């Protein structure tokens, strides 16, 4: 349980040298979320920063585990006498258990092998167009696959990592300039947040060559490239399939690209689910730690990883992402994609970010509740947001309830934790009540 720091990187490599299994933990976790992961994986040893002492000790609830606090960890890593010989390593060895963000449900521990970590780095290096001498800006937590894949790239290429403790929209480009960064990675709504920063005269005066990641919408793609002078490379992937499975090197707006040469990708008939298969053994996870039910759902035995994501493919073999299957709401006989609604709402000039969830409806199925975080010093009437939606989406996808929030609780990959959002309708504006008032 360590922040982004060189000590964290050294600890990860030390764990791998020992042949032990790395279980990274989001440093922002506390209470029930932290207790769940610690109780589920039952670690024998913990490396932690003192800043998280109270949350960690409380969540352990008397479980036996050796804890190496920061001072002890630094001493151990710096002591030549404590240097152990490397253990034999094989491609199929379990290297890490990475718990998924759990944006809509309980986190699952993805089993990640040594070969998968190396494949993550190779795919990321290709997507980022890495060249010797490059500098990669890394703000993502190392425990998330978005950060882990960058951490291992210097084992394959002569590159440096500019390591940031956290993502900061206001400081992002000054940090990129300071470290002469050539690549930036994005996830979730990071690009949208950067686009909504006040324009500056030196926006395009930066050393960044490529911005790569997942979450660039068609609406801002070209505008981002032109404003900041970078090339967008949208990708698709997940921890379960060694991170990246498709990469868009053709700059085709709205597409996550074509499969990497070591993967087959197809869209399931009827459901529209994205399915992934490795062209060689060991590229797909063996399943989820101590979770046979989830393993069977993702790997039903047909040779394909069932991602739980919706997608489409065009006649040229380019794929597009359409959101999570489970991140949808059934309303009045129609399936509403939360991703589609949020994409439209986030384009509103006053909106910084948003999240859509389903809430109980008095007439069966669900109604739509939209959480909205406005840009600083902006105020918007809920009716204006409804009108914005009505002109841009199907009638059944327009939210009924709107709640304004100051902040969202986020995962390590800057995704909104929807499980933490209230399903109550007493704290928000109701479109139906307004229309009948």
Précis, in short:
The chain has 437 residues and is of the alpha/beta class. It is 26% helix and 25% strand.
What does this structure look like?
The protein has 437 residues and is of the alpha/beta class. It folds into three domains: 78 residues, no CATH class; 230 residues, Rossmann fold (3-Layer(aba) Sandwich), CATH 3.40.50; 108 residues, GMP Synthetase, Chain A, domain 3 (2-Layer Sandwich). The protein contains 13 helices and 21 strands. Helix 12 links the parallel strand 19 and strand 20. Helix 2 packs across helix 3 and helix 5 packs across helix 6. The radius of gyration is 22 Å and the shape is globular.
Q: Which percent range fits the helix content? A: 25-40%
Shape estimate:
globular
Alpha carbon gap, first and last residue: 52 Å
Number of domains: 3
The major β-sheet equals: 7 strands, mixed
Q: Tell me which CATH architecture of the largest domain applies here.
A: 3-Layer(aba) Sandwich
Rg calculated over all Cα atoms: 22 Å
The CATH superfamily of the largest domain is identified as ANL, N-terminal domain
According to CATH, what is the class of the largest domain?
Alpha Beta
The CATH topology of the largest domain comes to Rossmann fold
């Amino acid at each position: 349980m360590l922040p982004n720091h060189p000590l964290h990187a050294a600890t990860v490599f030390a764990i791998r040298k020992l042949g032990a299994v790395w279980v990274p933990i989001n440093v922002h976790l506390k209470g029930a979320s932290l207790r769940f992961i610690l109780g589920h994986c039952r670690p024998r040893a913990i490396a932690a920063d003192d800043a998280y002492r109270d949350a960690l000790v409380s969540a352990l609830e008397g479980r036996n585990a050796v804890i190496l606090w920061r001072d002890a960890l630094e001493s151990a890593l710096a002591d030549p006498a404590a240097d152990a010989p490397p253990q034999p390593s094989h491609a199929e060895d379990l290297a890490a258990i990475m718990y998924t963000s759990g944006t809509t449900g309980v986190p699952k521990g993805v089993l990640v092998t040594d070969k998968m970590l190396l494949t993550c780095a190779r795919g990321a290096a290709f997507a980022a167009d890495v060249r010797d001498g490059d500098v990669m800006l890394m703000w993502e937590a190392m425990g998330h696959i978005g950060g882990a894949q960058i951490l291992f790239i210097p084992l394959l290429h002569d590159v440096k990592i500019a390591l940031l403790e956290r993502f900061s929209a206001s400081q992002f480009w000054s940090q990129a300039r300071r470290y002469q960064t050539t690549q930036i990675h994005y996830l979730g709504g990071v690009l949208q947040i950067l686009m909504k920063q006040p324009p500056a005269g030196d926006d395009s005066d930066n050393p960044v060559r490529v911005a790569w990641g997942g979450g660039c919408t068609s609406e801002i793609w070209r505008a981002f490239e032109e404003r900041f002078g970078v090339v967008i490379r949208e990708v698709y992937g997940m921890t379960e399939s060694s991170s990246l499975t498709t990469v868009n090197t053709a700059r085709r707006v709205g597409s996550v690209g074509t499969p990497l040469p070591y993967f087959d990708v197809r869209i399931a008939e009827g459901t529209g689910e994205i399915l992934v298969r490795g062209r060689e053994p060991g590229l797909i996870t063996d399943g989820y730690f101590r979770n046979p039910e989830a393993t069977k759902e993702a790997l039903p035995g047909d040779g394909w990883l069932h991602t739980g994501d919706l997608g489409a493919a065009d006649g040229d073999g380019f794929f597009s992402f359409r959101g999570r299957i489970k991140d949808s709401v059934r309303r009045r006989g129609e399936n509403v994609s939360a991703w589609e609604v949020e994409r439209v709402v986030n384009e509103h000039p006053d909106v910084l970010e948003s999240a859509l969830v389903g809430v109980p409806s008095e007439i069966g199925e669900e109604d739509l509740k939209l959480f909205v975080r406005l840009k600083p010093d902006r105020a918007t009437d809920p009716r204006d947001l409804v009108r914005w939606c009505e002109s841009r989406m199907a009638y059944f996808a327009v939210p009924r309830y709107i709640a304004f929030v100051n902040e969202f609780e986020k995962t390590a990959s800057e995704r909104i934790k929807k499980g933490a959002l209230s399903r109550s309708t007493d704290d928000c504006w109701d479109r139906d009540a307004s229309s009948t008032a």
